[in-house]
Sequence to fold (286 residues):
Amino acid sequence: MTRIVYCNGEYLPEAEAKVSIFDRGFLMADGVYEVTSVIGGKLIDFDGHAKRLERSLSELEMRNPVSMDELLQIHRDLIEKNALVEGGIYLQITRGAPSDRDFAWPNPDEVKGGLVLFTFAKNLVEMPSVKTGIKVISIEDIRWGRRDIKTVQLLYPSWGKMMAKKKGCDDAWMVEDGFVTEGTSNNAYIVKGNKIITRGLSNDILHGITRAAILRFAAEAQMEVEERNFTIAEAQEADEAFITSATTFVQPVVEIDGAKIGEGVPGKLSLRLREIYIEESLKSAV
Ligand code: PMP
Fold:
């Protein structure tokens, strides 16, 4: 089955979808994105992703080429056209394609933003890495200062992932001024006893939609939550560690820079949180 994607107003077979070489997403990483997961053909936390998208756009003074209602409809159309049951939808909005390359932003009345969306099929609920846990390395966080905006400039996180792979690991936790900021494409947590510790929100990290849900569900389940900085050394001494993101939900971390976390197997609290997350977010899936 050929994948049907959405490209600037049209539903097209993926091979026919084209964007201009002048698109500012391509030339300058002048674009923002969202990834929303799909389980049972339904979108998980669409509202959360839509709100963050609006914030990313407004911080960068970028316009959404369509309304949020239309955006939801496009998501639904793509799920239907591709008979998507489990996986996700990638969405990208750029500042469009002026007729040339220029550092100055084009006038949004003259240049319409670019909008592309595509689906991907993936097993999210049953992931082998949940049983084994993942291994992470630490790397220096040398990204720009507005990590709260979900932009498509992902070269460093992508490079970080490769550094981890070269060391036989799965991902990298980035460290700034001695403290963990986040994973290359996820938020980072440690667990001590019944307490979940994760860095507080600021411009230093992406405000994960899964993070917000997890912290809410954790509090509801009488787990303690502390939003504060932690170091790699503290993480290596923790009882458990895990990451969250829209497409991995909760993934246990079993090793950091070669040091085993706890017994070196996925932690009980992490696994319980994963179950709660899946159960609870399905209730509000649309
Ligand atoms: N931090 C970074 C740097 C990310 O790229 C992501 C996923 N895009 C996250 C955190 C997790 O965010 P979410 O839970 O909204 O997927």
Summary: The domain at 4-121 is CATH 3.30.470.10 (D-amino Acid Aminotransferase; Chain A, domain 1).
